Amino acid sequence: MSQELLTIGAFAARARLSAKALRLYDRLGLLAPAYVDEVSGYRYYRADQAERARLVALLRRLDMPLARIAELVETDDTSAAALLGAYWADAEARFASQRTLAEYLRGRLSGRNSEMYGKFVVETAEVPERVVLTQTRHTLADELPAWIGASLERLEKGAKVCGGVTAAPFVVYHAEVSQESDGPAESCVPVADEGAARVWAAEQGRGWETRVRVEPARRLAFTRITKAQVAHPQIVAAFEAVEAWVAERGLGYDGPCREVYFADWDSAGPNDPVCDVAFPVR
Q1: Cβ atoms < 10 Å from Cβ of 103
Q2: Is the same domain home to 49 and 126?
Q3: CA dist list (Å): 256 to 63, 66, 216, 238
Q4: Global pTM?
Q5: What is the distance between the alpha carbons of residues 151 and 137, in angstroms, rounded to a whole number?
Q6: pLDDT digits over 231-257, tens only?
Q7: Which of 34, 104, 223, 251 could bridge across to 233 with cysteines, CB 3.0–4.6 Å?
């Protein structure tokens, strides 16, 4: 056995890793020793485990989650390469978003708020009273886009038996939605037939938290943004631009902020206007 297996020290040297790292990989279920002496507790490894040990170490340097590392090292080379490619595409998208956020924060901290807000044109519009189908959920920022799409799709399907959609769908934020704060957010679709809407909402059960309510007539201060600007932090700057406009004119708020989605999201290009970022004012 001693000729077939390497002690943890010898294997660490072979794999160019530390014994501490190997113990961690064992504890995390990423690389188990080939044999553990029941009496001494000493770990022994086969020489051919060195390649896997190095792979795990390299993947951890990419900040890959442990669950994904475990999945990757158990697959064949072709599937593993595809898994790595998918992970890195997600990572690059996240880095791009963080880079944009860092640039935005740098502008705020350097006092260039007016320069950033000047990119947004703020207008007002009078919105009549409307009956709306709604679904409400406590959600964090990373879950929000998927939930908005799914909830509006459900409500628009329901609207077909409620006289149809009468105005652009919108999402109301009753409290902050971020990585630490979970709202809630409320998806709303205006419909024509209040009675039919109440019947449909009752049939959905409690799981979807579907309701019908009357949205009062409001005056909205809003800025129109493109599909690309809906992403963070551009949309944050849009909200702040409207808030600055409201403050400059001494107006008061008349309800929670919202996003009004007036265009077809799937067919819109990055530079196409799709959304109004709005605050009810008085």
Answers
A1: 11
A2: no
A3: 38, 40, 13, 15
A4: 0.67
A5: 10
A6: 777 788 889 899 989 999 999 999 999
A7: 104
> CATH no. for residue 212?
3.20.80.10
**Domain span including residue 229:** 122-281
Residue 178 has pLDDT above 60, yes or no: yes
Q: What letter does residue 232 receive in the DSSP assignment? A: T
Q: Cα(70)–Cα(54) distance, rounded to whole angstroms?
A: 14
- The answer to whether position 249 is within a domain reads yes
Report the C-alpha gap between 252 and 281 in whole angstroms: 6
The verdict on 129 and 57 lying in the same domain is: no
Cα–Cα distance for residue pair 141/101, rounded to 1 Å: 14
- Domain assignment of residue 252, yes or no: yes
Sheet (strand 43-45) strand order: 6-7, 43-45, 35-36
Residues 6+ away with beta carbon under 8 Å from 228: 234, 270, 271
- Kindly state whether residues 158 and 241 are assigned to the same domain: yes
Count of domains observed in the chain: 3
Whether residue 88 sits in one domain with residue 11: no
